[in-house]
Write a structure and sequence with these properties.
alpha/beta, Collagenase (Catalytic Domain), 5-stranded mixed beta sheet, 3-stranded antiparallel beta sheet, 9 helices, 15% strand, globular, EXORDIUM-like, signal, secreted
Length: 396
């Protein structure tokens, strides 16, 4: 969800929209809006109040009954999720949904309408160019490099793997039927240790950071307009416009007037010292959740960077499926679309919702993860929307 900017990982909200109360509210709101909107504009609301009230009462009754019915399935769903498996099992967060973890019947949900808007997706090999903005430890860089390398790991990795997680992204195609690429490689890196554009960035100044990093402007990175993806990663002491308040990361494309080219890019910040309880959740939690939920231990012993990994995965999935904001998204407003990662934000395992990340494996060291990567790495990444199944899908 990105009300304040395309591709942004938003704070709050998205999870609650998938559960019974919110669904009922949407149902009620839609009924009321549609009824009032279709009344004769010269007629008074009072003349139709009886019929509106009757229909709203009926709709809310259906919602309540659905929530009651769904509660009876909780035990069976828990039993299914407790069985270890290396295959993907789709997750449906709506009340009274069919348990498709055990069923081959996929019931399409009418609430989400993921559509293709005929724009390009990244079907050729994806070359990632990293801009390390600010101060970074080598250990932190290594975690992020290993995550990106895990998408296209040359040798088989224990499942569930990052490659398997990425296979959901690959289900999306362009208008020729070509799938999003399975090949992602770090093709170049640029160091900006001296904060060339200050320690407080904006959505526009981050494009200037990219411009400065290009070799033709005394930087080190090439211009790649065919398969190039520029990723600005900011250190712990760098702030971004709307950071922590509304976004943890976002993606867009550069403006030719600003950079000289149209290049897909993403920004993700290290929230380790600024707002880990927001952008590195569930490895850190807000104070108000302290009595009901304990933070998970990060798999690579770095809360800020382990939190970044999921945000990087989020933005990487969306920039691949919607690089110019005219390809895959739900909703009617391209300036505020719901992209394939937005719809599953905060979901890491079965039972996710209401701030609970879901049931995920725990290593012998007590660290939580849901995918394996190269060099024995483990990561916790959010689930993604599968348009074919019309549901969130992830590794279990």
């Amino acid at each position: 969800m990105h009300k304040t900017g395309t591709g942004a990982v938003q704070i709050g909200g998205i999870l609650e929209a998938y559960f019974g109360i919110a669904t009922c509210k949407v149902f009620e709101r839609n009924w009321q809006g549609n009824l009032v909107g279709h009344l004769d504009p010269m007629a008074s609301y009072g003349n139709h109040r009886f019929w509106i009230s009757a229909i709203l009462f009926a709709s809310m009754s259906v919602c309540v009954l659905s929530r009651v019915a769904s509660s009876g399935n909780d035990k069976s769903a828990s039993a299914a999720s407790s069985s270890p498996s290396t295959v993907y099992r789709p997750f449906r967060p709506w009340p009274n949904a069919v348990n498709i973890a055990e069923s081959k019947v996929l019931v399409k949900d009418p609430v989400v309408n993921m559509q293709y808007h005929m724009g390009p997706v990244l079907t050729s090999a994806i070359h990632v160019y990293i801009i390390w903005y600010g101060r970074w430890k080598n250990s932190q860089k290594s975690i992020i490099r290993d995550f990106l390398a895990s998408v296209s790991a040359p040798a088989p990795v224990t499942g569930p793997s990052v490659q398997q997680w990425w296979s959901t992204v690959q289900t999306y195609t362009d208008q020729t039927g070509a799938n999003i690429s399975a090949s992602i490689m770090v093709a170049g890196e640029h160091e900006d240790r001296n904060y060339s554009h200050g320690k407080v960035l904006s959505r526009l100044s981050v494009q200037e950071v990219i411009r400065s990093a290009l070799a033709e402007n005394n930087g080190t990175l090439p211009v790649n307009t065919k398969g190039g993806l520029y990723m600005v990663l900011t250190g712990e002491d760098v702030m971004m416009q709307d950071y922590c308040r509304a976004v943890c990361g976002f993606h867009y494309f550069t403006f030719p007037a600003k950079v000289g080219y149209t290049l897909p890019y993403a920004w993700i910040g290290n929230s380790g010292k600024s707002c880990p309880e927001v952008c590195a959740f569930p490895f850190a939690i807000p104070e108000f959740m302290g009595e009901s939920f304990a933070p998970l231990k990060s798999p690579n012993n770095d809360i800020g960077v382990d939190g970044m990994v999921s945000v990087i995965g989020h933005e990487l999935a969306e920039i691949s499926s919607n690089p110019l904001i005219n390809a895959w998204y739900a909703g009617e407003d391209p300036s505020a679309p719901f992209e394939i990662a937005d719809l599953c934000e905060g979901m890491y395992g079965h039972g996710a919702g209401g701030g609970y990340p879901g049931d995920v494996p725990v290593s012998k060291f007590g660290a939580s993860y849901n995918v394996h990567g190269v060099r024995g790495r483990k990561f916790l990444v959010q689930w993604l929307w599968n348009a074919d199944m019309n549901s969130c899908q992830g590794p279990v």
